């Protein structure tokens, strides 16, 4: 069995970042979603993450729990920084604050986010195949594809305009899922 402790922090980053990037990429794959569509897609994605915390594969379960724990740590650090502004002194803190200020309110880049998700998936699956158990790599890849599929199917959209029929998965979402499938299979 593959353990998260088997990886360095740099190696662990794409493994823990890929599921969130896939969620974001699937949400943006057909352009910028409306508020209602975004809510449905994020709710569907959150459900897949909750289910993964009880996944039958130990590695997928540990990744989902690791992501949850990392998010809690980030929230605690942000709360500490807000409560104690003096703790924000330093180059790293200044760089982080500058990056946050630059990205706040910025419109997401759908093509950039889907490309990032595919790149992270490729890196994470390749690392798992090289250093982990093949069964864990397959389960992890299937989980990433499940995230993309569930999010894509969460809300139907109109492909050709106002009078067109609704489709469950748009062309952009299907193209993203196809790219992701190729990344998992590579």
Would you give an account of this structure?
- 72% of the residues lie in helices and 2% in strands.
- By secondary structure, it is an all-alpha fold.
- α1 (9-28) packs antiparallel against α5 (110-131) and α2 runs antiparallel to α6.
- A hairpin with a 7-residue loop joins β1 (157-158) and β2.
Number of helices: 7
* CA-based shape: globular
User: Would you identify the regions where 5 or more consecutive residues have pLDDT less than 50?
Assistant: none
Structural class: mainly alpha
> What do the pLDDT scores average to?
85
Question: What letter string, H or E per element, gives the SSE order?
Answer: HHHHHHEEH
Share of helical residues: over 70%
**Rounded radius of gyration (Å):** 18 Å
Going across the biggest sheet, name each strand in turn.
1-2
Task: Write a concise keyword list for the protein shown above.
single chain; 186 residues; mainly alpha; 7 helices; 72% helix; 2% strand
């Amino acid at each position: 069995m593959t353990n998260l402790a088997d990886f360095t922090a740099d190696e662990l980053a794409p493994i823990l970042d890929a599921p969130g990037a896939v969620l974001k990429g699937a949400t943006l794959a057909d352009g910028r979603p409306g508020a209602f569509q975004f809510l449905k897609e994020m709710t569907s994605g959150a459900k897949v993450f909750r289910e993964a915390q009880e996944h039958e594969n130990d590695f997928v379960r540990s990744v989902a729990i690791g992501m949850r724990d990392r998010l809690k740590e980030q929230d605690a650090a942000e709360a500490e920084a807000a409560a104690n502004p003096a703790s924000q002194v330093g180059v790293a803190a200044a760089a982080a604050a500058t990056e946050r200020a630059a990205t706040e309110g910025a419109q997401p880049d759908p093509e950039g986010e889907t490309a990032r998700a595919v790149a992270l998936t490729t890196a994470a699956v390749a690392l798992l195949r090289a250093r982990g158990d093949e069964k864990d790599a397959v389960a992890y890849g299937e989980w990433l594809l499940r995230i993309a599929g569930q999010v894509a199917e969460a809300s139907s959209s109109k492909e050709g305009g106002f009078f067109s029929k609704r489709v469950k998965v748009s062309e952009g979402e299907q193209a993203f899922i196809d790219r992701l499938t190729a990344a998992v299979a590579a």
